[in-house]
Amino acid sequence: MSQAAAILHADLDAFYASVEQMLEPNLRGKPVAVGGGVVLAASYEAKAFGITSGMPGRRARELCPQLIFVDGHFSEYQRLGDAAITVIGDFTPAVERISIDEAFADVTGCTHLFGSPAAIAAAIRTRVRAELGLAISIGVARTKHLAKVASQVAKPDGLVVVDPATELQFLHALPVELIWGVGPATKARLASQGITTIGQLANSRPRALDRLLGPAAGTKLFALAWNQDPRQIQTHRRAHSAGAQSALGRKPAAERVFRPVLLQLADRIATRLREKSRPGRTVTVRVRFADLRSVTRALTVPSPLSTTLAIADLATELVRGVLADHPNEKSISLLGISVSHLGDPAPIMQLELPLGLGDARSRRKDVARAKADRAMDAIRKRFGRDAVNYTSVAANAARSVPDAFRSLAEKML
DNA sequence: TCTGGGGTCCTAGGACCC
DNA sequence: TCTGGGGTCCTAGGACCC
Asked: Of A13, A106, A319, A363, which has the fewest CB atoms closer than 10 Å, so is most exposed?
C-alpha cells in the first residue's frame, strides 16, 4: 500500500445485543432483543428472523416466538463503546467517532510504528476481542467511503483490506445500496433504470444520473462509484442541532395534551444546550398525525435561546399553527422539537439577553426564566434528573423509551 | 396502547438586498 | 412588450444514517 492514504472504518457488530450476550453467556447463540415495547437492538440471531430496531415488540414476538427480551445495560454500552474507541486511539490520534459503536481512523502516518494498515486493523480487532469480549469488524481502504463499504462487507466479525490497485474491481461488483447515502428511495430509482450494482452506476452517463437523482446527489454518487471521496478524517465535530421527540400512541390534538409534552421535550433539549453553552436560534417542531403523515414548522429568532420556557413557548405557538392549518386532524401520534443554528460555545447569560429587542418587561421575563433554569440545573446536578420537573413524570414515562437510551444517541454538542 | 429516537444533508421556492 | 442576476437567509419536506 505504498503512499496511498490508509483509512480504517471500525464498527462493533450488533453492538447492544452483543454486549448483552457477552455479559450473560446464556444468551449467546440465541435471538435477543434489547427493549420491550419497542426493539431497541437485535442480535444477529434475531435479525435472521427479520427483526429490526424500531420494530414494535409485539410484531417482533410474532416473527420469533422464542425471542428473548432483555433490559439494556445502557451504562455498559457507553463504557464499552468508549473503550473500543480508546483502543483505536492507541494507534492514531486521527480518529473520527461517528456514533457510540463506530469510528473512522487515518493510519497513514503511523505505519512506521505499528506496521501495515492491515496489521493495525488486525491488532485492533484482537485487542477489542481480548479486552472487551466484543467483535468489531474493520474495513481498510484508500478513502473513507470505501473503508466503510469494506467494513460492511467484513461483517460479522471480519476484516477486509482493499488494495488500491484493485479497488474498483472490488467496489464495482457490489450492490448500489452499500454506498453510503443510498437508501430504499434511491435504490428504487436506480433500479428503475436497471442500475443495481456500483459498476453499473459507474458506467452510467453522469447527465442521466443528475436527471434521475438531482444534480447534487447524481454527481456525488457517480464520484463515489469511482471511489472519489475527498472527505478527510474530522477529529472534532460538533452537533449542528439538538432535538427530542416523543411518540404518543394516539392522543387528542388539544393544547392540554401537547403543552406538557412540549414542555418536557424543551426541558430535555434546553438542559443540554445550557450544559454546553450552545443556545440556538431556530426552533422546529414536528407533528405527526394518526395516519403517520408528519408536518414541520420552523421559526428563526434574532437572539439565541436556551431557556426551557422560551423554547417551549415558541414550540407551542408553532404547534398551534400546524393544528390550525389541519383542522381535520383530531389526533396526533408524535411530537418533536429540534433546535438548530446553534451558536459557538459562549457564556449564555449575555447571549440570552435580547440585543436591544423587546421591551423592558420581556427582558425581565427572560432574565427570570434564565434564573429559574439555573436553579433547576443546580438542583438536578445535586439530586439527579428527576428531582425537579415541569410536568408529572409519571404522566409520560409509561410508554416512552428509557432516558438512558436517548442519552446514548445524543451527539456531542 | 398498531411504527423509536437523535441526528445529517439536500432541494426547491420565496423574500429580500444590492 | 419586455423585466437582470447574484447572494443570503429562511421554511418545508424528504432521504438517509446509526
From this structure: A363
